[in-house]
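Long-time lurker, finally posting.

We've been working with Histidine kinase (Vibrio diazotrophicus) and I want a structural starting point before designing mutants. I don't trust myself to interpret raw outputs, so I'm hoping someone here can both generate the structure tokens and explain anything notable. Sequence follows.
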Amino acid sequence: MRLKTAISNNPDANDAIKEIRSSINLTGISAIVCYYTETYSNQNLSSFFSCYFPDIPIIGCSSCNGLMTDKGIHSGTVIGVMAIYDDSKSSAYGTAYVSLKDCIQYDEIVGSAVNEALLKANRVGEVPDFIVLHSTPGNEERIIEAIDAQFGTQVPIIGGTAADNNIVGNWSVSNEHNDSSEALTILVGFLSIPVATSLSVGYSPTEYSGRVTNACGRYIYAIDKMPAKQVYQQWLSEWSGLSILDEYLFDYISEFPIGNVVGHIDNQPYFKLSHPIRITDEDALEMFSESKVGETITLMTGSKAHLIERASRFVKDANIKNYNETEMVGGIIIFCAGSMLHLGKQMREVYEKIISQMNGCPFICPFTFGEQGKLVGGENAHGNLMISSAIFYESEHYL
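Top reply, 14 upvotes:
Generated this for you. Predicted structure of Histidine kinase:
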């Protein structure tokens, strides 16, 4: 396997994809992973991709304010691709797209998408090595549950929720045939080499925690039988020493998210993160991910220095656990848009950390409104302010 990235800043989708095509060799290409900013969300990307990259599985997702590749940080109007060349007899790739408009039966609709992708890969009835998952915001937990149920095991997932620049709905997902602002698209991969996936938290728990006593979906109404807003503000005040008014509360969210305890390893809890969106009229917290009654939640904290450092840790951990650094081929990295906005110009340091750990290998990285992947305990999960990654390695050096 080998990987190659290319970008274009041309605001016209046809011209941009034509420009990308000029730098991508089609010989031996197996699949394309594509990320783009909101400028392209309503430009019928699928038709242009199918024209310039015929009969190639393509998965696409919109990104907030820009994206990263091994060639740099690309801000503003930009579209970027990673071409996957994996034409061995053992490898296969397939995509699927389904509309989520008015969706109620997620098992059924996600199951149809999985079956379509497997059919295109000519691997019906088999379990893929990994799945790239992208959907528009809402119900990511239901989608992951349906994928797990479809296979009866937790296939490694790397995913991100489609994003725009201002949370106004100018997001989309796409494959080689369709694109939409309310849909799900997946890429199943049967690889000729190993892949290491992870969903990294990178924040530390504080001493402040409580039990969710009233919640519905992505709304937390009460923590320890007290209004969720009141408890959250009290935690922030006691931990930071700041008295934060409602109108300034969300200036601190990226530094102090909520951690949902998922499980324990060696009696130590591990978490997925949840990002509050707003305070409701009922003093509830509306979140970007779900919390359930009975769950323990914790105030988490992470300085900018901490967030920058974690950007390389997920690659380092994968190498320590499974491989040697020299065997890396490249990767797909999903980085939270909230963390990106919080770091601002310091994203340059994040880029330099990733480049150093990736040894200059190709990678592509969007900035998303939710991240999906496999936690340290083995569960596939959806969270916020996290990093999801899939790092590919040469098979002959697999330990």
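Before you design anything, note these points.
Residues 204-301 form one domain.
DSSP finds eight helices and 26 strands in the chain.
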